[in-house]
């Protein structure tokens, strides 16, 4: 598949709630961007999520406190 088709497949495969953040970041719809711009947004979001996971795991946990990230909220 070409790059633009891959972006469409990726975005259309997301749950409705999961589409909100990339669409908002794109200023409307991720699909309205060029393939290069959409890919940049997806890569930055993935990098940010990975960095957040590292920070969460290294932070001191408090007993009785459950920390959730955005993917946990989407799954709940």
Properties at a glance:
single chain, 76 residues, mainly alpha, 4 helices, 66% helix, elongated
How much is the average pLDDT?
A: 81
Radius of gyration: 15 Å
Major beta sheet summary? none
Distance between the termini: 33 Å
Order of helices and strands: HHHH
Number of helices: 4
Total strands: the figure is 0
Beta-strand percentage range = under 5%
Low-confidence stretches: none
Portion in helices: 55-70%
> Which structural category fits the helices and strands?
mainly alpha
Overall morphology: elongated
Structure description:
The chain has 76 residues and is mainly alpha-helical. It has a domain at 22-51. It is built from four helices and no strands. The chain has helices at residues 3-12, 16-25, 35-58, 70-75. It is elongated, with a radius of gyration of 15 Å.
């Amino acid at each position: 598949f070409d790059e633009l088709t891959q972006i469409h497949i990726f975005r259309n495969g997301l749950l409705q709630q999961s589409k909100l953040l990339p669409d908002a970041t794109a200023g409307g719809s991720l699909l309205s961007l060029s393939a290069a711009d959409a890919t940049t947004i997806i890569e930055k979001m993935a990098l940010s999520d990975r960095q957040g996971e590292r920070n969460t795991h290294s932070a001191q946990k408090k007993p009785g406190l459950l920390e959730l990230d955005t993917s946990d909220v989407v799954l709940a």
